[in-house]
Amino acid sequence: MIEYLADLTTPISMGILLGGLYAVIALGLSLVFGVMKLINVAHGDLVILGSYLAYAILTILGMDPIIGLVIGVPVLFVLGFGIQKYLLNRAFHVSMEAPLIIAFGLSIIIQNLVQLIWSPLSRGLTTSYSLASIGAGPLHLPLIYVIDFAVALLVMLILSQFMKRTYLGKAINASSQDSRAAQLMGINTERMYAFAFAISMAITAIAGVFLGLTFPFTPQSGVSFLVIAFGVVILGGLGSILGTFVGGIILGLAQTLSAYYFGAATQMLAVYVIVFIILAVRPQGIFGR
Amino acid sequence: MEKQEELLLKVDNIDVFHGSFQALWGVSLSVKKGEIVALIGANSSGKSTLLDAVSGIIHPAKGSIRFEGKDIATRNPFQIVASGISQVPEGRRLFPSMSVLDNLIIGSYNGRARLNKNGNLQRVYELFPILAERKSQLAKTLSGGEQQMLAIGRCLMADPKLMLLDEMSLGLAPIVINEIYKVLREIRKRGITILFVEQNVRRSLEEADRAYIMKTGRVVLSGEVAELREEEEVKKAYFGI
Asked: Does the pLDDT at position A252 exceed 70?
């Protein structure tokens, strides 16, 4: 019995740590939905774009992907601001569906662009630490999983403090709660939307790097990570940081435990089953209002 | 007659449409510095639309809106708030899941008001001590009267020269309404000009210096409240005499 439990500690710890990465991947999706009520179907591809950007920085400049974030984060931040300002804000005036269609178009463009530049082959961010492992007693964990989790905690802490303490964070929050009232308070809500998308993209850049350090990726990987991100936010309730974290951990655990009991092929199936159950039982998510 | 420099707000002959429905027909209105002006009328007579046009939420198809001599008819709401017009919207529209203090801080979002944030916050707390007591509570946990006080306080945080108030006594107990009007007189003493929308005609004619009476998107009567009280039409329509 004790041995059996000792066996389980590995998938359980791996699942929790993996959940941190999933939370970071989902955070941008959750933020954009929370503020703009837009389901950004390009989110998975934007994460993968972040991975390829890190890959370019690593192969061309020889810069460590984590340090390379000093380039990646601002680049995607500005790109996000531009996408919202010049594409999505205009589309919001047309209809609620128009931004969704634009996001879908973006998804296709990014996939093809990435494939054109880096070929359809699988890539990975290989560094000295991406294959290292750390152990404590019988437990051996890949170092990168531990880093993923620590980064997730850090990103969520910074984001929640930013939203709570700064003028900009409060104004974004106000715009999401009642955009008309926010306008009457002197807030340029369209600018807030652009900032929200830009922040979402900055987080996406971070997610892309740690995803690339953890898993190999191809131009098509965005779709499966979009599904995972959806699963996380559906579990946690869209627009909640804590909910996203818990949702990430539940999905991480579902994947590692299903792999442990039923084999690696069932990992994605476990995600779909859990999402299905939550949608049937509690469609607003565990933390949803 | 009226000297140009005294005029704070001048709405001149505006038409406003909601889609294909015309909500305002050639409406003109002016507010002098330091005045309290009431906008009276039944439901959907165009009062709120007029306030929204001044706030820049909706732009007139025709006519001009001048504030301190500058045309603001095509400006965005955030630019209008920055120039000194702030609105307490109908239904209060607080940010329900934010604290009382954060609601007030959001009020001071425009650059000019942000510089005076602490001073304005003190003044709002002087006017409404209850808000200081409840500053860390979520806005949605306040009573109706307290919510209205917060909405007015949030508006004052924007450091307005002209304050627009839309149906602020709706759904409140008479004793609370009395208290809020008392504060309004206090706000006026501090040099802020007030344009308010009110359904209660008797109340409006007591509190305001001048009033405009609207009906189906048009201004049908206007003048000093003392004159309006004597108008046969007003007596018949609103006082049942």
From this structure: yes
Counting the structural domains of chain A, the total is 1
Q: Range of B209's domain?
A: 1-84+163-171+195-241
Q: What is the CATH number of the domain that holds A94?
A: 1.10.3470
CA–CA gap between residue B56 and residue B164 (Å, rounded): 12
Buried b (16+ CB within 10 A) or exposed e, B209-240: bbbbbbeebebebbeebeebbeeeebeeebee
Q: Are B127 and B183 in contact (CB under 8 A)?
A: yes
Percent of chain A at pLDDT exceeding 90: 74
Q: What is the DSSP letter of B5?
A: G
Interface residues of A toward B, Cβ cutoff 8 Å, are 167, 170-171, 173-174, 177-178, 180-189
Distance CA A185, CA A165 (A): 18
Neighboring chain A residues of B161 at a CB cutoff of 8 Å: none
Domain assignment of residue B114, yes or no: no
C-alpha count within 13 angstroms, C-beta hemisphere, residue A246: 14
Chain A positions touching B97 (Cβ under 8 A) are 177
Q: Chain A residue with minimal CA distance to B58?
A: A180
A62 by DSSP, 3-state: which? coil
Structural domain contains residue A1: no
Which residues of chain B, if any, have pLDDT below 50? 1-2
Is A2 a domain residue? Answer: no
Residue A80 has pLDDT above 80, yes or no: yes
**Contact between chains at A186 and B77 (C-beta distance less than 8 A):** yes
> Does the residue A177 lie in any domain?
yes
CA-to-CA separations, A177 to B95, B98, B143, in angstroms, rounded: 6, 9, 19
Domain of A122?
13-281
Question: In A, which residues are within 8 Å of B107 by CB distance?
Answer: 185
Number of domains into which chain B is organized: 1
Q: For residue A286, is pLDDT > 80?
A: no
CATH number of the domain where residue B30 is located: 3.40.50.300
pLDDT band at A274 (very low <50, low <70, confident <90, very high): confident
Separation of alpha carbons B24 and B27, rounded Å: 6
**Res A245: pLDDT:** 94
Tell me the pLDDT band of A279, cut-offs 50, 70 and 90.
confident
Strands B210-215 and B218-224: antiparallel
Average pLDDT value over all residues in chain A: 92
- Mean pLDDT rounded to a whole number for chain B: 92
Q: Is A289 within a domain? A: no
Q: What is the pLDDT of residue A200?
A: 97
Residue A105 CB neighbours (<10 A): 13
Helix axes B117-127, B100-107, angle to 10 degrees: 130
Q: What is the pLDDT of residue B216?
A: 92
What pLDDT is recorded for position A289? 60
Give the CA distances from residue B217 to residues A105, B25, B199, B205, B214, in Å, rounded to whole numbers and listed in that order.
44, 6, 15, 20, 7
Tell me the C-alpha distance between B107 and B94, whole Å: 10
